[in-house]
Design goal:
It is a single chain. By secondary structure, the protein is an alpha+beta fold. It folds into 2 domains: 133 residues, Alpha-D-Glucose-1,6-Bisphosphate, Chain A, domain 4; 148 residues, Alpha-D-Glucose-1,6-Bisphosphate, Chain A, domain 4. 21% of the residues lie in helices and 37% in strands. The strands form 2 sheets. The protein has a 7-stranded antiparallel beta sheet with strand order 1-7-6-5-4-3-2, with helices on one face. Strands 8-14-13-12-11-10-9 form a 7-stranded antiparallel beta sheet. A hairpin with a 2-residue loop joins β3 and β4.
Amino acid sequence: MTTTADFQVSIAVALSPAEAFDKVCSVSAWWTTDIEGQTRGANSNFTVRFEDTYVDFNITEFVPGKAVSWHVTNCYIPWFEDKTEWTGTTVRFDISPTDSGSKVTLTHVGLKPELECFEGCSAGWQHHISDSLQKLISEGTGIPKGRSLHVTLNVPTTAAEVFEAICRVPDWWSTEFEGETRSKGDVFKVRFAGRHMTEFRIADMSLGQRIVWEVTDSHLDWLDDPTEWMGTKIIWVIQEHGGPAQLTMTHKGLEPEKECYSSCEKGWEYFVTQSLARLITEGKGRPGLPVTQGDTNE
């Protein structure tokens, strides 16, 4: 038997409704630090990411001290059969005064028990609200998810053409290349002037939509830990919304506390937004080390 009940969770906090509302809107402090856009103001838009998962929100209601509603305009949740299951749902927060402070209630309108996502997403919301948001309110510091490095590119072409270009690794990343990049299970290796060697296995592939490269071996000789990339993944997600294709590259596991983060961020920015972009739009990329960045990146 199905039910019409939407998922809901509440917490009691020792803050005024206005103060509690402010904490709810501080999304990066309790949900994920990987966020883009504005989380305050009616009709504002923002995106949250968790590696290759993303959710786009539009704020349809914003009443300070009382309520805020986030409508999901688009999403990609790769571990479910319907990867857009959240699209069209609404995350609503209601804040009401109590004798000791406030009550904060999250209702995920449209997240119902019959959905595939319900069990896993319910557990996630329980953690983010009852643990992380509660901790932010009571102790001043939440426990949001960390930020893996990611780069986004919009190009006036199709998802299929972007997918094809990504697979042409020696045409945009490094000509010191060996292996295959076309099928799940393929293995390939890239090198840069004897200073960088990384071997990948294609762990997942959905034509025109998603590719996951898993690092199986790596040596970056300018780092104190040359194997810092080991166990990380490069995740490519391609979207089309009736306009330019949007590509998001996430280097899962490469977070700001890593020694490589700054130089690798510059490297990925160059290879994705310049070299790969040129391959897609002009037919010719710029593989190899960027002259302006010398030996500090990939």
